[in-house]
Amino acid sequence: MGNAFRCMSRKEHRGGAAVSRSKRMGSARSARGAGKLTPAEEELLHRQALAMAIHQHLDAGGSMSRRIDAGGSMSRRIGPGSTSSRRRGDLPDSVTNAKAAQIVLENLETKKIVLVHGEGFGAWCWYKTISLLEEAGLDPVALDLTGSGIDNADTNSIATLADYSKPLIDYLNKLPENEKVILVGHSCGGASVSYALEQCPEKISKAVFLTATMVKDGQRPFDVFSEELASADVFLQESQFLLYGNGKDKPPTGLMFDKQQIKGLYFNQSPSKDTALAAVSMRPIPLAPIMEKVSLSPENYGTVRRYFIQTLDDRMLSPDVQEKLVRENPPDGIFKIKGGDHCPFFSKPQSLNKILLEIAQIQAPATLLLGKAKAEEENTEKSS
After folding, report:
1. For position 242, what pLDDT does the model report?
2. Is the pLDDT score of 281 beyond 90?
3. CA distance 67 to 84
């Protein structure tokens, strides 16, 4: 699913500079005129980029995770006085400490972290995060959503958010009865995480929205960008990035942005080797899941603790939009990555890892634990 809509924004402020919509779109048009690589050349570049990325991480002491197949800046949580955290008392003091948290594996509610990619990406984008989490003793798993990564589905055939999120829901449904996971959703992968919270709340310990579309009930992921894009109707009529997989006489089925546009929006702080890897690995973005209104209920979605990670140098989902998301749909905790672009798993992997470890150690409130214990006791009495 895609958050790449930011490329159509009316005006974008970075420092004191303002970049107008016409200039941004003009650069996209000129970039599209460049010659395209042949499939063989793209495959070679893909292999080279992946090899370079792996070697780069191995040189730093990391290890490539088997699960890909299936500069640490300061990070902090918004402190007391913020209007965008509901239950700050649930968070340990270590969260606000700049030092790396000492993780005690025995105290964790779960060691399993499921990583859900954003629009156009795949499980491959999490390779640094997987390695760092494994080194800490956790059990990360990265999934390809339908039509993403190495999943063979045609993105033009994806008609609903349920279709797109099916690999995630299938994975959760196959978990052992009492096993839970932490979900981490990036960008528009946040909509898939929200959908999973509604469908399988009993399987999820916590949900983490990484500069993601943390939508409200009845909201479309696309609505997150409505202030930037004016309206979905205008976007669908005017956008030059739409794909018509079923023919021009049928509704558009996807989005695909040119490589220069993607580089400027997603990877303004990311290493060039990771940008090269993404350039040859990203796939078209299915449009239907982005335009679908998500149904969320307090009885399901509302029972799982949510956390939001903001990236402060994000040109795709601006800090202002991120602030609006947490203000209108307050999570249980908010963290910030200074200097992080829209893809902190590339640009700030150590900072992201530290925050994920901190979130993993947050214990459930006593009232929640008592409620669960009482429910388990009642279930035991009924079965005996």
Report:
1. 85
2. yes
3. 34
